[in-house]
Protein backbone atom coordinates (compact mmCIF):
# COMPACT_ATOMS: atom_id res chain seq x y z
CA UNK A 1 0.00 0.00 0.00
CA UNK A 2 2.96 2.32 0.58
CA UNK A 3 3.95 1.91 -3.06
CA UNK A 4 0.45 2.84 -4.17
CA UNK A 5 0.45 5.87 -1.87
CA UNK A 6 3.75 7.05 -3.32
CA UNK A 7 2.54 6.64 -6.92
CA UNK A 8 -0.74 8.35 -6.05
CA UNK A 9 0.98 11.36 -4.45
CA UNK A 10 3.30 11.73 -7.45
CA UNK A 11 0.36 11.50 -9.87
CA UNK A 12 -1.61 14.06 -7.89
CA UNK A 13 1.43 16.33 -7.84
CA UNK A 14 1.47 16.17 -11.64
CA UNK A 15 -2.26 16.99 -11.61
CA UNK A 16 -3.28 13.76 -13.33
CA UNK A 17 -7.03 14.09 -13.83
CA UNK A 18 -7.60 10.35 -14.35
CA UNK A 19 -6.08 9.51 -10.97
CA UNK A 20 -7.98 12.34 -9.30
CA UNK A 21 -11.30 11.17 -10.75
CA UNK A 22 -10.77 7.43 -10.16
CA UNK A 23 -8.69 7.37 -6.98
CA UNK A 24 -11.00 5.18 -4.90
CA UNK A 25 -11.47 2.61 -7.67
CA UNK A 26 -7.69 2.44 -8.15
CA UNK A 27 -7.16 1.86 -4.42
CA UNK A 28 -9.70 -0.97 -4.38
CA UNK A 29 -8.16 -2.55 -7.48
CA UNK A 30 -4.65 -2.31 -6.03
CA UNK A 31 -5.80 -3.78 -2.70
CA UNK A 32 -7.58 -6.66 -4.42
CA UNK A 33 -4.51 -7.48 -6.54
CA UNK A 34 -2.23 -7.29 -3.50
CA UNK A 35 -4.52 -9.46 -1.38
CA UNK A 36 -4.89 -12.00 -4.19
CA UNK A 37 -1.13 -12.38 -4.45
CA UNK A 38 -0.49 -12.53 -0.71
CA UNK A 39 -3.07 -15.27 -0.22
CA UNK A 40 -0.81 -17.70 -2.10
CA UNK A 41 1.62 -17.47 0.81
CA UNK A 42 -0.94 -18.48 3.44
CA UNK A 43 -1.73 -22.13 4.20
CA UNK A 44 -5.49 -22.05 3.55
CA UNK A 45 -7.47 -24.82 1.94
CA UNK A 46 -8.67 -24.13 -1.62
CA UNK A 47 -12.34 -23.98 -2.51
CA UNK A 48 -12.64 -23.74 -6.29
CA UNK A 49 -9.93 -23.92 -9.00
CA UNK A 50 -7.23 -24.10 -6.28
CA UNK A 51 -8.23 -20.62 -5.05
CA UNK A 52 -9.03 -19.74 -1.45
CA UNK A 53 -12.08 -17.84 -0.27
CA UNK A 54 -10.11 -14.60 0.04
CA UNK A 55 -8.73 -14.96 -3.49
CA UNK A 56 -12.24 -15.41 -4.82
CA UNK A 57 -13.35 -12.32 -2.88
CA UNK A 58 -10.41 -10.38 -4.32
CA UNK A 59 -11.46 -11.36 -7.82
CA UNK A 60 -15.01 -10.21 -7.11
CA UNK A 61 -13.67 -6.84 -5.88
CA UNK A 62 -11.82 -6.42 -9.16
CA UNK A 63 -14.97 -6.82 -11.21
Secondary-structure blueprint:
Blueprint: H1 2-13, H2 17-21, H3 23-38, H4 53-62
Helix pairs in contact: 3-4
What labels describe this entry?
single chain; 63 residues; mainly alpha; 68% helix; elongated
Mean pLDDT: 91
Strand content: under 5%
Sheet bearing the most strands, described?
none
Helix count from the secondary structure assignment: 4
Uncertain runs are none
Rg, nearest Å: 14 Å
Number of domains: 1
Shape: elongated
Structural class: mainly alpha
| N→C terminal distance | 20 Å
Would you count the extended β strands for me?
Answer: 0
- What series of H and E elements makes up the topology? HHHH
Estimated helix fraction: 55-70%
Question: Any overview of this molecule?
Answer:
By secondary structure, the chain is mainly alpha-helical. The protein has one domain (2-62). Helices cover 68% and strands 0% of the residues. It is built from 4 helices and no strands. The chain has helices at residues 2-13, 17-21, 23-38, 53-62. α3 (23-38) runs antiparallel to α4. The longest helix has 16 residues, at 23-38. It is elongated and about 45 Å long. The two termini are 20 Å apart. The mean pLDDT is 91.
State the gist of this model.
This protein has 63 residues and is mainly α.
Amino acid sequence: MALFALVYVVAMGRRNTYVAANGFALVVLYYAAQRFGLEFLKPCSPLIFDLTLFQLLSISLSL
